[in-house]
Here is the input.
Amino acid sequence: MKALAAGYARNVPGLDAHSLMLGLEGIGLEFMPMGDRDGAYDPEHKVILINSKVRPERQRFTLAHEISHALLLGDDDLLSDIHDVFEGERLEQVIETLCNVGAAAILMPEELVRDMIARFGETGRALAELSKRADVSASTALYTLAEYTQGPVLYAVCAVAKQEDDEGIPRPVLSVRVSGAAPSVKYTLRPGTPIPDDHPVALALDTGFQMETDSYVPFPSGRKMPAHVVAYPNKYRVINVSFALQKGEIQGEMPKDDPDK
Here is the structure.
């Protein structure tokens, strides 16, 4: 699926909406309010529908996702292989996952990802720059960047959200929104993991400046795994973070009270 989508992207003149559609002969594109749905591909009427009410970056990813649906339906061999292995609800889940893989391959080609790593290292800064250059959310960029990361690195997108304290009162807390890891790392951070007030990630949010220092990965149990931290503030009070782990921590098993895997 990745090869199919990447090949498609190489053969269109650009990655704007109009250029992306040029590779789908006879298929139209329409924007309209769609309620809770981001988009859809209607093969019977040969049209891709995009929700006009969602954020532009979400529209962009949805368009690439629906293009991937069209590519998948047009590849009889790949479609047959999938149907041979999966069925029912699981089949639908796998197709949706593959189309997300296709969307990432279209919007974040390998050359772009490797260029970001070459320029900024395997860091939170590279995550922010990839998100900006590809015009996708930081969460979307995170998984693609992690896939190409060679070192023992954990990535996280952190943001302020309300969480209930011990008394059940909602309070703003800086916490992990999404996390991913390089192939060599066997665990990630659980969404909702709070970031301590004195952690470099919190300091980056407060000051608006990039923080780079030796620190730790904060796990919910209180365990502190040593790591070199790069925290890069993005817009909307979002922090893109990389945790470069020490060698002894790469293959270590998580404690039983840290089910973050």
Summary: The radius of gyration is 20 Å. DSSP finds nine helices and eight strands in the chain.
